[in-house]
């Protein structure tokens, strides 16, 4: 296992990139710590798979260097980097048995047969495939096939990292949970460096200790699931994480209060910036309190989604969402108040600190 | 839901039935008719029973033609299948080369069979043909008109030229359907070029290869036009395959009864082989 450093990595698929628009990956400068479990989260086309393929050596970056444990591997091939990767669609060798599938990467590397046997048996145990070792890989279910793909990475104990490219896309929902918790277990037991690409926030937040959120070829925030939820650094993180996403509304800030239309919202403290550019206030629906006091809203729709209700309302001519408890009543003359703990201020989409 | 029974609806299929009857069933029955009767002319027919069939099944000439045909089919399969795979593997997967290669590959398939025969008949001639003349000039004693070996080589090379494209196109279709992730995973697993072919490409081409083998076997087993135009079945009988023999028997010798019996045996063999291939293919699909 190794620490992975991305040094100012940029990548363009076209041959002669001119402007920022030509880059699929604008600039990534980040270190994946040894033994860490990371999720790369972002919408389709944000560059997360590009970054993953650069790490695994399936792509070579247009600019920047890649280091494994301080050693430059930018120009090394995939084999030389010694990386394991699990793809979106399970890749198995149809004609081989499960056992031979797992033995394949070792045999290709000329590992002596007794060692192959020992490693394959260990991996079969780890992945829970032991009782189907002799079966042809062809007839297995999607989740079993995906376990084989994973197993082919695990079987090489010296891999520098295991990379996952949306590995649960084709897996049935109930098996997703099982596989995800098995992955976490494997990570805890063996301490692999894992990088997991996904566009599913639940997957990212439950799998990883550190979530790297990407947007339009850039990393916009790296943090724990709680940080991403409480203090989104960029309005995109606010929209993308959480269901429904963060309410973002343009405001005018004066000292420690913000004005929206005819309403004035008290902020916990005055924002630090000179407040230039577009100033917005972001608040998650979880922090919008619906009650008899506060600012008036008109409710358009109430969605009951089981554990709680999502109230869609109109506030000063803008859409706003609030979450209320399953058993709470919706008042006849609804008013909202913002919990100061949940208020974030953004200047040109980036979060500004408040107070001090 | 209530079902409506209306037996008059059967009349709706009558036009098709009539069409099929005229185009297939009636001609086929004529052949059956000839195969069990004999005539001395004057349109007087009398019952011959299984006589013609006995004769055909005990005729050396029939079994020799059958043997030649099987050898021919085997040789062209042994050449065309690996060659087709090899060309398909080396064709570009993207860029401007793809349409160019596809058009080049499709060209031989677009040429009518008798034209292919004529092209090779002229091409191989030792007096004016480019191939025949050049081989002669290079010191080879090539002459497909009186050397059985040269005749076989010519007919086989012609078939390879004409039909390898079909195998190439089928294999290519199988190859391009393999997702990139397979090649990437193979790279990560450290697979050699041979291992990639053996464990990824070949298994993915399996189904199209079965179809290719079936089509090429059937076509070569029924081959008529091209060798007939080039060699006319000669020298002697050395390139007389089943269908050439059949035409000689029916039209050349006007031996209608025997020709009819042979047609039916020939037809049954093709049916049997089709059934075998079909069974193998569906069994393979079920296994998937």
Question: How would you characterize this protein structure?
Answer:
The complex is a heterodimer of chains A (356) and B (288). In chain A, a hairpin with a 2-residue loop joins strand 12 (252-254) and strand 13 (257-260). Chain A has helices at residues 48-56, 78-81, 98-108, 113-127, 142-154, 173-190, 201-207, 225-230, 235-240; strands at 4-11, 25-32, 37-41, 63-68, 71-72, 84-86, 162-165, 194-198, 210-215, 218-223, 247-250, 252-254, 257-260, 263-266, 279-283, 288-291, 295-296, 298-304, 308-315, 318-325, 335-338, 343-347, 350-352. In chain A, strands 6-7-8-3-9-10 form a six-stranded mixed sheet, with helices on both faces. Chain A has a four-stranded antiparallel sheet with strand order 2-1-4-5, covered by helices on one side. A four-stranded antiparallel sheet of chain A has the order 11-15-22-23. Chain A is elongated and about 75 Å long. By secondary structure, chain A is an alpha+beta fold. Chain A has two domains: 4-235, 3-Layer(aba) Sandwich (Rossmann fold), CATH 3.40.50; 244-352, OB fold (Dihydrolipoamide Acetyltransferase, E2P), CATH 2.40.50.140. Chain B is globular, with a radius of gyration of 24 Å. The mean pLDDT of chain B is 87. Chain B has one domain: MetI-like (MetI-like fold, Orthogonal Bundle), CATH 1.10.3720.10. Helices cover 73% and strands 2% of the residues of chain B. In chain B, strand 1 (37-39) and strand 2 form a beta hairpin. Chain B has helices spanning 14-35, 51-57, 60-90, 97-110, 113-123, 130-137, 148-176, 180-188, 193-221, 225-230, 242-252, 256-287, and strands at 37-39, 45-47. The chains are: A alpha+beta (356), B mainly alpha (288). The interface between A and B is medium-sized, with 24 and 17 residues.
Identify the notable features of this structure and list them briefly:
heterodimer; A: 356 residues; alpha+beta; Rossmann fold; OB fold (Dihydrolipoamide Acetyltransferase, E2P); six-stranded mixed β-sheet; 23 strands; elongated; B: 288 residues; MetI-like fold; 12 helices; 2 strands; globular
